[in-house]
């Protein structure tokens, strides 16, 4: 009976704690992740064409502006007499017959203002050559590129194989370039490096190198890594998987056959083919002139191995707490992938096998961005940039150049300005207005930016709001404070656009006061459950106490009775002993 009662008390106590824990768990606030979909709209400038008319009294137009390094093509038309067109600093001096036209073309390689004139014209004109680089954005001489060839079996050969793109960075455009042949990648070695370039690695990275590269990317460094067949057998996946990709040993092949199910023989599959479906992105098209290449990139010649892309790898490594402090992947996307004409030849028999996929799962290029504006480009095959490929295909060369400009953050970076709130203290329930200006680089307007306002308290999100675009650069929204608890909160805005990176404003602290009675912290049913749980617990403890005290009293009474009996028996034995002793003495006498 005693054992049954004790078990019943334990069961009641456990049920009480389960009810209490369940009520608190149901009331827990869940973090909601936001999926951002952005489609950039960009364009390219190119050669500048200027038409000028000259007469006895004026030049029309009287002035024009171009960017340094641009090719300037000027057509001059005479409106009346014979004229000359003269720019001293550019050594331009041509004669235009009456009512005729002449064309001059030159590179705008000097900054400043330059006068153009004619002997038969009473007025002059002015040509302005502006700095093509975005103010406050890095120029090539400000960007340090670290080429790593230590992880190649034949470092000298690999270095020579990609000398064309190396010369473009170091010789042609004055980037600060360091080439590593023998040293391990260390934190000190990467100090000051803006871009890490790794081509065709076929040697494993040490554990420390993996940590160093991960920390480098976490702190906003950029990586361009392009592989080969052997890269798939290295541990490079340790630092690429968090960005959604790893290297494959499958060779990309184009099916050049009417029978897609059975392409057999070299004539039916091609190892070199053209990619024309590239992601709309600042790498391929841009909204601001970048002077290092005049070429747009709408196609790419591909040869070599593929990437494996898996979005779940990103989720496994993605931090979902406080975006203001934690590092996370904010965007990862396939830049170029296959279609129904591309298959991944794993066994290299030039035939589509059972386990060899055809279609979009064959990935060529992946790009990623993290919350520190670190940018990553992964390419299945570095061979698309070797000397032969960039020598034969200028668009492959331009593609590499644009990648360097993008990961070097020379353009396409969101900037925030004038983040404002209507008040810094208000009563709960009052509306709070927020507005923000966003542009790219030197106030260039960029559309389709995703802008999210977040209200934080003790590192947890209390409220999330998408700001509405009034135009392409100004965003605003209204915060409903009804459901926000009183006290101090801090508010910031996170903006992002694919290819343009990630920007977060400074925190603004707001004090929220109580204008009405505080609502109950949890719903009434949870309070009832809590009270019932406490009552059941008290009852259980009472029964338990009563049972223990009663048992103790009974045991104490029994012990006292036994003690009394023992004392009585002891006294009887003593009396009998004394009587026997007296009898013996009498007999002795």
| CATH fold group of the largest domain | Rossmann fold
Distance between the termini: 65 Å
Provide a count of the helices. Answer: 9
Low-confidence stretches: 18-45, 319-325
| 3D shape | extended
Percent strand: 25-35%
- Level-2 CATH architecture of the largest domain: 3-Layer(aba) Sandwich
What helical percentage do the residues reach? 25-40%
CATH C-level class of the largest domain? Alpha Beta
Q: Briefly note the structural class of the backbone.
A: alpha+beta
* Major sheet summary line: 7 strands, mixed
Strands of the biggest beta sheet: in what spatial order?
Answer: 11-10-12-13-22-21-19
Number of separate domains: 4
Mean pLDDT: 81
Estimated radius of gyration: 40 Å
**Number of strand segments:** 32
Question: Would you spell out the secondary-structure blueprint of this structure?
Answer:
Layout: H1 2-26, E1 48-54, E2 59-60, E3 63-67, E4 71-78, E5 83-87, E6 92-96, E7 101-107, E8 112-116, E9 125-130, E10 144-148, H2 155-161, H3 163-172, E11 176-180, E12 195-199, H4 207-218, E13 222-226, H5 237-240, E14 245-255, E15 269-270, E16 272-275, E17 300-303, E18 305-309, H6 311-316, E19 329-337, E20 342-345, E21 363-370, E22 375-379, H7 387-392, H8 394-407, E23 414-421, E24 425-427, E25 431-440, E26 450-457, E27 460-466, E28 468-469, E29 474-480, E30 487-497, E31 501-504, E32 508-513, H9 524-588
Parallel strand pairs: 1-4, 3-9, 10-11, 10-12, 12-13, 13-22, 24-32
Antiparallel strand pairs: 1-2, 4-7, 5-6, 8-9, 14-15, 14-18, 14-20, 16-17, 19-21, 21-22, 23-25, 25-29, 26-27, 26-30, 28-29, 30-31, 30-32
